[in-house]
Amino acid sequence: MSTPTRILVVEDEARIAEVVQSYLEREGHMVVRATTGEDALEDFARRRPDLVVLDLGLPRMAGEDVCRRIRAASDVPIIMLTAKDGEEDLVKGLQLGADDYLTKPFSPRELTARVRALLRRARSDDEPQADVLERAGGRLVVDSSRRRAILDGAPVDLTESEFRLLQTLARFPGRVYTRFELVEKVQGYQFEAYERTIDAHVKNLRRKLGEDARDPRLILTAYGRGYAFAEEQM
Ligand code: CA
Predict the structure, then answer these.
(1) CA dihedral 45, 10, 98, 223 (to 10 degrees)
(2) Which of 89, 174, 196, 219 makes an SS bond possible with 84, Cβ 3.0 to 4.6 Å?
(3) Which domains does the chain have, with CATH numbers?
């Protein structure tokens, strides 16, 4: 018997929070609601939710700060909600460690689909995957069982989405993946409109791997097609 999934919904607009709650409850989830960042952090510590839906525009403590503080303590999947729609905000949200991002107005159906995908992903992460990839002549190690990447002997602090992206690309060096394919691999669902989240993840991943954005050596851009991990130099 499984216990219901607990989802913390942090949203100060009651109407949106209610709709989100009713959709999530229909899916069989248990919903805890918070309207301020302070309450959200308290609920997070006390209720240990399995997933967090977090509005970026909160009174007093901003959603960005809430995200950062939750991420400092936990790997829980976080979906951000925002009224803004700009690449800048998207990158910022994902840099803070959010796993996914929805711009208001959004369809509650789409939110529940993404919640489902992230929960499925979180569960499949519990299954052991014994495989270790060594790339870039051994400089980069992608360890799937421990879910970590090591570059030049030092661990690289990656979010779950960034790790999945790296893992996918590094598995078959030289194979070009379209953004569409990567969305599916990284997020677990396909929505064409969200392919640009992949660009944001790639940008973050390159930065964390110490890549020169204008001349990346590991994560390559295949112009007009997608991305690929560099083939080993012989
Ligand atoms: Ca708000």
Answers:
(1) 170
(2) 89
(3) 6-125 (3.40.50.2300), 132-229 (1.10.10.10)
